[in-house]
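As a warm-up, study this chain.
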Amino acid sequence: MARLKIASLFAGCGGTDIGVQGGFEFCGHHYASLPTSLVYANDFDPGACNLFDENFKLKIDRTDIRQVRAETVPPYDFLTAGFPCQSFSIVAQNPPRLGIRDSDKGTLFEEVCRFLKSHQPKGFLCENVKGILSANGGTAFQIIMRSLRDCGYHLMHMLLNARFYGVPQRRERVFIIGFRDPETMDAFRPPMPVTYTPTLADVVVNEESVPAKYYFSERAVSGLLAAKPEMGKGRVQSLSEPCNTVGAHLCKVSLNGTDPVLRLNGRYRRFMPLEVARIQSFPESYHLVGTERAQYKALGNAIPPVLAWHVMKSVCDAFYRSSRTKIEIP
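Now compare it with the structure written out below.
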């Protein structure tokens, strides 16, 4: 029985691919290796690609996905694609959400369809922000689902919050699962929430080792304290809870915004890239390289590896239960 060969589109810094392969540790829990083999990965962002190449044996294809000839990609059984979410995000209010009308990023899901039609893999997994469900009054999601279904797949979608799957972060994401075989679709079960939830206390670094540049100035703190509470500025996080969603722009986070920040021993600061990686559930073995700006962007755009593992484990279980598509189980 063969392992599932995986092709990863919009791979970014590899959060999905760590989870899809498994075989890592996070916050004292072991995530077993899954019966998969990564054979192709693509992304166009230089910083994310540098991080990917630093952490994977397989080198990422840096070609613009719109220029990649699908027939040149190695054969694969399963496709993963966290296509760009900026057009659908509920925080993208300036400019307003464009959804499917964004001719640059909003229609990149069509590249997923192109690859599905070309290779006709056994299945696929797509991920995006919660806002994709309501973009363009809900019509964007209907178009995406219809387009994927027209590629010859049976579909389901689910909204998962990473905090219920062992990730120290409140991060809601939509997952679209597709199988070519209806029996495998019938065998699929969404991942069950786990009984443990890591908190910020499990992932923040010792304050004594935090460089001064991560702390906000007295002027910034004074402005925060003068702001009206209803303005929602300076979302200070509790160490005893999971963190609010970390985004791609944390390199320029301010106390005048609504991004998550820390207040420890009376001092306010932003998260270090290492802490963002931990909040996203990247294992300690993951190496951070490149500029901090690139790290924040890539990590903030990533799918939490632990959440990806739970979803892919359910995918593998469905293949295993399906009598027509047996895969190797380690």
